[in-house]
Design goal:
Elements lengths: L47 H12 L4 H33 L3 H19 L9 H19 L3 E3 L13 E7 L9 E6 L2 E3 L2 E4 L1 E6 L2
Parallel strand pairs: 2-6
Antiparallel strand pairs: 1-4, 3-6, 4-5
Helix pairs in contact: 3-4
Length: 207
């Protein structure tokens, strides 16, 4: 230890208050930093990204929490796909049957044309042109609505009664017809793009 005399002045802070010389800093060392080593253990610091990566690679894949979280994620994806498909299906259905209400309102027009043609028996020759005109109007009307997917239900006298597209409004007994066959078509039925819009009202034969 080197003692300073009363006449000596510390040079560049080399001495402390008791006259002891400060140790010189070694090259590469920074003041205020201390490396501490306890036995063979060394402290390791990781960034947040490194911790997440370590968790994913080493810990989570085999733990129950990860498996449960993965199952929840897969269920959420499946539910999301199901909702998406349902919305697309509903949207397609809406587009497909967008004109259903309008076409349903037009059915009474067809009914009145059918009634007019059903009561043409016994008319004189002067009225035949009128009947022809009504029939042509009905055909043009049917062609127009057919372009939008509206078609008449198959219902003719002698055909078998089909509860899927026919509605029985009464029964009759006719020997020339078989049991459960259509004896009379009271009102024509219609389907819109394969979906029943209105069943055909018929009289059914019961032999």
């Amino acid at each position: 230890m080197v003692k300073k005399t009363d006449n000596e002045v510390p040079i560049n802070g080399l001495y402390d208050e008791d006259g002891r010389v400060f140790p010189e800093e070694q090259p590469g060392e920074q003041a205020g930093t201390v490396d501490v080593e306890v036995g063979d253990e060394t402290e390791v610091s990781l960034s947040q990204e490194e911790l997440v990566a370590l968790c994913r690679e080493s810990v989570c894949p085999g733990c129950d929490v990860h498996k449960e979280a993965e199952a929840i994620r897969l269920r959420a994806l499946a539910d999301s796909e199901n909702v998406k498909k349902r919305l697309l299906r509903e949207n397609e259905e809406m587009k497909k049957y967008a004109g259903e209400s309008v076409l349903a309102d037009l059915l009474p027009v067809l009914d009145n044309l059918d009634l007019a043609l059903a009561h043409t028996g016994g008319l004189d020759a002067a009225c035949q042109n009128f009947v022809i005109g009504v029939d042509m109007t009905r055909k043009l009307f049917l062609d127009a609505v057919k372009g939008h997917g509206l078609e008449a239900v198959a219902a003719t006298v002698g055909a078998d009664f089909d509860p899927g597209v026919h509605e029985a409004v009464g029964t009759v007994e006719q020997e020339e017809l078989g049991d459960n066959q259509i004896a009379q078509v009271v009102q024509q039925g219609y389907v819109l793009k394969g979906r029943l819009l209105r069943p055909a009202k018929v009289m059914v034969n019961k032999g």
